[in-house]
Structure formats: C-alpha cells, structure tokens
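TICKET: design request
STATUS: open
ATTACHED STRUCTURE:
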C-alpha cells in the first residue's frame, strides 16, 4: 500500500509520529470546515463488482455494433468514441487501500463489500483544491467517489473521478499490504482489521450469512415456523454439557444460560405448532478447540407425526440443497478431501460401525461387566459408573469416528446415552436416534422424540443419579416439561445442527474461530 508519504512503506519511522501526522491532518480539515465526521450520509449507487459488470455488459453490446473490416486500432478508437457517448455514471464508496500519485494524475484503489475497484483521479477533473485534498488522504481513509466507468490502457475497469469526498478519516495505520494481518490471535481479537485486509475472510462470513439464509428458505419450503425461546433458564437441559450460571437480580434467582433449544421447542409441539425450528446461540461451559467454542450457533427443529427416518430424509435433502445453493456443486472440497453430497448417504448402526472398525460385536454383549472387560482388552478408558451403553459410545468415539469421511448416518444408539429419545420397539436397549458424520465430525443429532411421560420421568431419575455419581453434564428432572408431556405430545422427529461446524465444512475453514466473527478469547491482562 503506497502513497506519496510512504506511510505504509516506512517501518523505520516512529509509529507515534505517523499517528501524530494523521491527527494533524484531521485538525487541519476541521479548521478548514471539512470535518469528515460531520458527514451523515453518502448516496452510493453501485458497489465495485456491480460497476464493473455494468461496464462489461455495455462494452459487449458496443463491440457487437462495430462495423466489420476495421483494423484493431480503428476498432479500439471507435469503441472509445461509443463509450464516450454512453458513459456509465456511478457513485461508489469504500476504504482506500492503495494510492499512487503521479503529478497531475493519480491512481487509487478502494475496497467495498464486493471487492476492489481502481480510481483514476486528475487535477483537471477535480480542480486544484480538491486534488490537493486527495493527495493528503491516507491509506485506510473512507472516501466517496462520483464519476464514470472506463477501461484504462492496461485493460483495468476503473472509475474516472469527477467528485471525491473524504467520508471518514483513519487515525490508525493498516497492516502492510504484502505481509497482511498474519498474527492469528490479533485476527480474532480485531476482526474488523481482519475483514479489511483479508478479502477471503470477508468472503467466508458473506457465505455464512448465505448458508443461514438458505437453511431458512429450505425449511420455509417445508412449512416450518421459526420461533424464539428463552436463553436464561432455571433448568438447562436437552444436552450433556455444563451450563454457565448467572443471577436474576429482579427475581433474586440463580439461572443458567441454555445449553440446547430442545425442551421449549417440544413444548410448542405439545401446543400444536406442528413444525418449528430455532436458530440461536447456546452456551456450554467447556473447553475451546478447533471445533468447539463456549458460545455457538445451534439450530434445532421438530416435526410432529414423523420419526428419525423422516429426519434423515430432511437432513440429506437439506445438506444437498445447501451444497448446490452455496457452493454451486454437490461435490465440495475440504482441505485435500472431496466430499460428495450427491450420492445417497451411508447408513450404519452404532454397533455395526464398531463391528466394522473395531471388530467387536456389542449385540452379543449381555452385561456391563462383559462390556468393561472388552474395554480393558481394547485399552478403552472408562469410569466405574459407566454402563454397557456408555462403553459402546466410548468404543465408537475411539475406533469409528476417524473413519467417517463421507456423509454417514450412525443410528440406533444405546438408551443409556440418549435420555430424551424413544426406544426401538424391536430392541429396548437402543433408541431411534442418529448422528450424521462428515469429515470425522458430528454434524447433527436426531431422535424419534420420547413422548411417554412415565418413561421420561424414569430417564430423568437416571440422569439425576448420574449427576450425584459425579457426571457434571447429566440432565436434571424438569417438572414443567414432564407436565407438558402428560398433556400429550404427538409422535415427533427432532434434530439439532451445529451451524458453525456446517459453515466450516462449506467454506473450507480449518477452525471454528475462522467462522465466528468474534470468537471467545482469553482477556488480555491490562
């Protein structure tokens, strides 16, 4: 990023002096009645890509009208004349990222939401005073430009500035162009800088917004209703996680931040809202790594009169739809891996997956002691309180997950690890549940929802006992939820999706912090 003062090319200069110069420039502007911070609006007609597209369209139309038989030079001259007669006037605005002053004519580049566009700025077009003001502007300043679009001799579509206005003065210095903002910790803490200097980061978050928009479009097409439920709750249930706790001063009550969306959405199914979903923040007081952040975006949906088979069909259809809409293809790349959403997703029971990848058949295991003996034999760590169902899950995590690259539904989990799920009529030790795995990651979790209030009370009691035995992530009995079930909930399919992990997959992002605008960071000591 170069300008006539070489502000970004002079690391040997004292930074404080450079910052002082910028403030002096602002003071001068204010003294001359040109305070940019007094400006309240600027009429923008086009973004950078829109302006370029308009010019390309006109350019193609004019080329088609050129007489035949012209030489290359004659055709270029004739095309220039036609453009002069049909100028595309635009008003654009953005942050100045480059400036190159060459006497009476200069070039600059501004960056807006869509990308970059070059400006051609001349003393003759602006006038002496305005051109002098332009020469004093710095990299990082936000400017508005009115002019017409043309193509330079080097072939770059640019805006010939006829009016140029400083809209906001940058008092800080942006990271140097060629090295960019590479400090990962700073990128996450100062995301605004990251968005300015790394266009691919902006592209990721634009795509994130599109993913969520298309999820809503897909569910709207299936007559789902979007709702909102409480974040502060007295009983944080619906998932195996430790909650954050806080205090309601007005009510003088301790409350928790929700760890899932499930129990309130099911209450709405009881109330007769047959297809509901919510996209919202949930909070889990646990570790931070490349796939986990203590606060994250979850989507849960519930549909009356269907089961987990219905949820599988919905999930497979939605993921395929999102790949096509957002990525333009059902064959996407994540790192060096190709993931195919176009093929039917594989389906395996959890026990069959363990049998396939660990060589152990838990359908033949009859007791907790037998399961613990197998865990010891295969070096799977467990706790004394763990049952056969817990150990099945530990085996799956240790031996199976790393092999699940292509979309795979893992079904029929043990009842011990699924307190809110309906049992399989053919095998009461298992439940009608699935998780979708892609690229070794769990992408969603779905149930044929438990609607038997007596069974649900027994499972809550088992969860209470697990908590007393030391499981800090166990659920607690929720009497109001049980009351809702006693009123009657229809057979229902339900599912939860981790939106952040889905965005990671569809944007080829290596870590969850890369898809969260403001990820959780440890505070810097003052």
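STATUS: resolved
RESOLUTION: sequence designed for all positions
ATTACHED SEQUENCE:
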């Amino acid at each position: 990023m170069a300008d006539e003062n070489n502000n970004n090319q002079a690391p040997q200069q004292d930074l404080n002096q450079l910052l002082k110069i910028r403030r002096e420039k602002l003071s001068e502007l204010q003294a001359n009645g040109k305070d940019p911070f007094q400006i309240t609006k600027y009429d923008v007609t086009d973004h950078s890509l829109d302006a370029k597209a308009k010019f390309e369209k006109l350019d193609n139309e004019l080329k088609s009208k050129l007489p035949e038989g012209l030489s290359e030079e004659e055709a270029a001259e004739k095309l220039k004349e036609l453009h002069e007669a049909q100028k595309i006037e635009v008003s654009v605005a953005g942050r100045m990222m480059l400036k190159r002053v060459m006497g009476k004519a200069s070039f600059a580049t501004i960056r807006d939401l869509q990308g970059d566009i070059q400006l051609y700025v001349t003393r003759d077009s602006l006038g002496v005073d305005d051109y002098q003001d332009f020469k004093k502007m710095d990299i990082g300043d936000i400017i508005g430009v009115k002019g017409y679009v043309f193509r330079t001799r080097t072939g770059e579509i640019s805006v010939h500035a006829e009016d140029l206005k400083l809209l906001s003065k940058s008092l800080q210095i942006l990271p140097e162009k060629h090295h960019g903002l590479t400090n990962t910790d700073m990128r996450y803490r100062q995301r605004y800088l990251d968005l300015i200097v790394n266009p691919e980061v902006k592209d990721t978050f634009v795509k994130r917004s599109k993913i969520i928009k298309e999820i809503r479009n897909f569910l709207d097409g299936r007559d789902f209703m979007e709702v909102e439920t409480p974040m502060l709750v007295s009983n944080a249930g619906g998932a195996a996680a430790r909650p954050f706790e806080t205090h309601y001063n007005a009510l003088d009550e301790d409350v928790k931040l929700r760890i899932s969306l499930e129990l309130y959405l099911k209450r709405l199914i009881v109330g007769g809202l047959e297809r509901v979903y919510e996209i919202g923040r949930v909070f889990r007081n646990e570790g931070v790594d490349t796939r986990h952040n203590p606060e994250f975006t979850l989507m849960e949906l519930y549909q009356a009169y269907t089961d987990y088979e219905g949820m599988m069909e919905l999930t497979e259809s939605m993921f395929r739809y999102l790949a096509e809409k957002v990525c333009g293809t059902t064959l996407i790349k994540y790192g060096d891996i190709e993931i195919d959403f176009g093929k039917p997703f594989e389906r395996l029971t959890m026990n069959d997956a363990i049998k396939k990848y660990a060589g152990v058949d838990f359908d033949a295991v009859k007791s907790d002691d037998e399961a613990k003996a197998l865990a010891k034999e295969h070096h799977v760590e467990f706790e004394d309180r763990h049952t056969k169902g817990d150990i099945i899950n530990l085996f799956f995590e240790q031996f199976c997950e790393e092999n699940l690259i292509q979309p795979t539904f893992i079904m029929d989990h043990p009842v011990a690890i699924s307190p809110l799920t309906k049992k399989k009529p053919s095998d009461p030790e298992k439940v009608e549940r699935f998780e979708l795995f892609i690229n070794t990651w769990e992408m969603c979790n779905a149930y044929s929802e438990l609607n038997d209030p007596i069974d649900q009370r027994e499972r809550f009691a088992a969860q209470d006992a697990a908590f007393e035995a030391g499981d800090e992530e166990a659920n607690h009995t929720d009497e109001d939820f049980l009351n809702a079930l006693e009123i009657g909930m229809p057979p229902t399919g339900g599912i939860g999706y981790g939106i952040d992990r889905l965005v990671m997959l569809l944007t080829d992002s290596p870590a969850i912090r890369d898809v969260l605008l403001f990820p959780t960071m440890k505070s810097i000591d003052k």
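CLOSING REMARK: The domain at 15-180 is CATH 2.40.50.140 (OB fold (Dihydrolipoamide Acetyltransferase, E2P)). The first strand starts at residue 88 and ends at 102.
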